[in-house]
């Protein structure tokens, strides 16, 4: 049976929230399985054990051999108490069995982490021949949660002690008196030799926790910086992080977009099932992306006949067939230019398992002469309503839009007022083939997800709730 390292992470924290997110932040719930997997991966794929083993081998130069505790002049060497181990050469730590990780979350308190392993020691026995021992170890550590100068959560080792378990003699001969001395010596030395493994594990976990506070680029729109709103909270199944997204311009200035007239209602986050991790993307981030697109002019577009297929011609002849009053005295057969101007930020709605985006636009219809100056025919005010399809990747939530409906009203015309409803189907076809692709190209930047212990959300299940989208992935 392998030994156990017990690591108690002392996070003196309040009880976790009851499923309500009062801020516009991003809520992340990390399942305890993800934390255990992150630690296990750091031991398997990283150089932690090799580095510690190399340090031990380089500094001890033989725990129990020549120049060691049992060497010449040592406790049991020549000139020592018994003088019977002159032939015992250095007994060194040669291997550390890969620990098996298990952990338990302590609600409102911390994490109890166990690493099961054995220590292998090799040397030469006093009677000659190879001497091999295996020692089971129980290292108990206490770690406090602190904050770095940049506001990152960090785990700080406060106490580390070692309890030596069963020692097995695998090969060689070792007299009983020496066996007891070896046991006492290892009991004194192992804390200083093996506690660096705990430090190294904490270093890996700290890097993963610190990655939450990252700056994610949004292409030409700017960037989003994630900051912790509060200290992590702990339930019996997950660690909860309240993460505030801060939107910045390309120059690095914080962008404070206009707030809605009414404060948003608290987000009621659905309960998390066991062995899953969650991240909640608030309505605020959707509004932010579309607000940036609008202020940058990325939602404006000029649509000419070259941008639409031949089955949707843009000519005065087609316009006259739908609304002859719109032409005035303009002759048929001339090409048209449709100019979309979005002067107000779009409205995003998340509710009832559906995501929709409404974009208000001024639509100018002009006669189009490639070598001349366009002539205004009429101006429409319209609202384009889109269905939003959401798809997660490892680090982002991607959006693509499809037109659901378009409604327009006449704002001004060179002719007499007329019924614009006849134009809506024609304009909808134009929007689908020419405007939507441009819109989706601008949305290709996606909505960034915070980095939480390298959880991959590519296979996450999406749940659209009121004012948020919840991504849930099996651990």
What would your notes on this structure say?
The chain has helices at about 30-45, 50-60, 175-210, 285-295, 315-320, 425-440, and strands at about 5-10, 20, 25-30, 90-95, 100-105, 110-115, 120-125, 130-145, 155-170, 215, 225-230, 235, 240-250, 265-270, 275-280, 300-305, 335-340, 345-350, 355-370, 375-390, 395-415, 445-450, 460-465, 470-475. About 20% of the residues lie in helices and about 40% in strands. With about 475 residues, it is of the alpha+beta class. It is rod-shaped. The protein folds into two domains: about 5-15 and about 30-210, Super Roll (Bactericidal permeability-increasing protein, domain 1); about 255-475, Bactericidal permeability-increasing protein, domain 2, CATH 3.15.20.10. Strands 3, 10, 11, 12, 13, 15, 23 and 24 form an eight-stranded antiparallel β-sheet that branches. Strands 1, 4, 5, 6, 7, 8 and 9 form a seven-stranded mixed β-sheet that branches. Helix 1 crosses helix 3 (about 175-210). It holds the Pfam family LBP_BPI_CETP.
**Secondary-structure content class:** alpha+beta
Report the β-strand fraction as a percent range: 35-45%
How many strands, which pairing sense, and closed or not: the largest β-sheet? Answer: 8 strands, antiparallel
Mean pLDDT: 78
**Topology-level CATH name of the largest domain:** Bactericidal permeability-increasing protein, domain 2
Q: What number of structural domains do the residues give? A: 2
Instruction: State Rg.
Output: 34 Å
Give the termini separation.
27 Å
CATH C-level of the largest domain: Alpha Beta
* Helical proportion, percent range: 10-25%
- Within CATH, the superfamily of the largest domain carries the name Bactericidal permeability-increasing protein, domain 2
Overall CATH architecture of the largest domain: Super Roll
Q: Count the helices. How many?
A: 6
Overall 3D shape: rod-shaped
Pfam families: LBP_BPI_CETP, LBP_BPI_CETP_C
Main location: secreted
Keywords: Disulfide bond, Glycoprotein, Secreted, Signal
GO molecular function: lipid binding
């Amino acid at each position: 049976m392998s030994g156990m390292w017990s690591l108690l992470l002392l996070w003196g924290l309040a009880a976790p929230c009851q499923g309500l997110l009062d801020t516009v932040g991003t809520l992340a719930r990390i399942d305890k399985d993800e934390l255990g997997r992150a630690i296990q991966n750091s031991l398997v794929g990283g150089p932690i054990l090799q580095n510690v083993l190399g340090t031990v081998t380089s500094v001890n130069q033989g725990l129990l051999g020549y120049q060691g505790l049992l060497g010449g002049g040592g406790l049991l060497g020549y000139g020592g108490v018994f003088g019977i181990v002159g032939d015992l050469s250095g007994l060194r730590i040669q291997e550390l069995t890969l620990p098996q990780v298990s952990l338990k979350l302590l609600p409102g308190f911390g994490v109890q982490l166990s690493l099961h392993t054995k220590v292998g020691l090799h040397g030469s026995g006093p009677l000659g021949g190879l001497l091999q021992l295996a020692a089971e170890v129980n290292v108990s550590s206490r770690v406090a949660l602190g904050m770095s100068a940049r506001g990152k959560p960090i785990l700080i080792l406060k106490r580390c002690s070692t309890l030596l378990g069963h020692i097995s003699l695998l090969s060689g001969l070792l007299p009983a008196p020496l066996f007891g001395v070896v046991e006492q010596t290892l009991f004194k030395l192992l804390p200083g030799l093996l506690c660096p493994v705990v430090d190294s594990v904490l270093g890996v976990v700290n890097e993963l926790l610190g990655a939450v506070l990252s700056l994610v680029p949004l292409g030409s729109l700017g960037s989003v910086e994630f900051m912790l709103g509060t200290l992590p909270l702990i339930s019996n199944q997950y660690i909860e992080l309240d993460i505030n997204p801060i939107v910045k311009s390309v120059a690095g200035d914080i962008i404070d977009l206009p707030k809605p007239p009414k404060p948003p209602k608290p987000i009621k986050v659905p309960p998390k099932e066991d062995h899953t991790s969650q991240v909640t993307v608030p309505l605020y981030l959707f509004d932010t992306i579309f607000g940036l697109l609008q202020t940058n002019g990325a939602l404006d577009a000029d649509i000419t006949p070259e941008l639409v297929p031949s089955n949707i011609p843009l000519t005065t002849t087609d316009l006259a067939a739908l609304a002859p009053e719109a032409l005035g005295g303009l002759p048929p057969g001339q090409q048209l230019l449709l100019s979309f101007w979005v002067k107000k930020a779009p409205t995003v709605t998340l509710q009832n398992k559906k995501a929709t985006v409404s974009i208000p636009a001024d639509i100018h219809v002009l006669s189009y002469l490639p070598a001349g100056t366009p002539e205004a025919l009429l101006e429409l005010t319209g609202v384009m309503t889109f269905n939003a399809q959401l798809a997660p990747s490892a680090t982002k939530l991607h959006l693509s839009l499809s037109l659901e409906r378009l409604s327009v009203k006449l704002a001004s015309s060179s002719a007499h007022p007329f019924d614009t409803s006849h134009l809506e189907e024609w304009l909808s076809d134009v929007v689908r083939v020419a405007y939507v692709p441009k819109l989706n190209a601008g949305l290709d930047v996606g909505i960034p997800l915070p980095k939480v212990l390298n959880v991959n959300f590519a296979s996450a299940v999406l749940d659209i709730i009121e004012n948020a989208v919840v991504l849930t992935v099996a651990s």
